[in-house]
Amino acid sequence: MPRTRLSICQRKQRFDSEEAAVLAALAADIDLRPYACDRCGRFHLTSRLKGKRRLRGD
Fold first, then answer.
1. What are phi and psi of 33, to 5 degrees?
2. Which domain of life does the protein's organism represent (predicted)?
3. 3 state SS of 6
4. Is 51 left (phi over 0), alpha (psi -120 to 50) or beta?
């Protein structure tokens, strides 16, 4: 599994829990998915959804 680049991790907003990241993703105007970062151990959001489960059913 590829590691998150440190420069990407440092630019992204960090969430302390997956639940907080999911709530932020659902509130966004675009489809986002939370993921656990292997660099900082917290959660970020990504817009890359290819082959991934979507949070919304719309």
1. -135, 135
2. Bacteria
3. helix
4. left
For the chain, domain boundaries: 6-46
Quote the pTM value: 0.78
The backbone torsions φ and ψ at residue 11, rounded to the nearest 5 degrees and listed phi first, read -85, -25
* Rounded distance between C-alpha atoms, residue 56 and residue 6, angstroms: 29
- What residue type is assigned to position 50 of the chain? K
58: three-class secondary structure by DSSP:
coil
Instruction: Extract the tokens encoding 9.
Output: 């991790």
pLDDT per position in the chain (58 positions), as tens? 567 889 999 999 999 999 999 999 999 999 999 999 999 999 999 998 776 666 765 4
Residue 22 dihedral angles phi and psi, to the nearest 5° = -65, -45
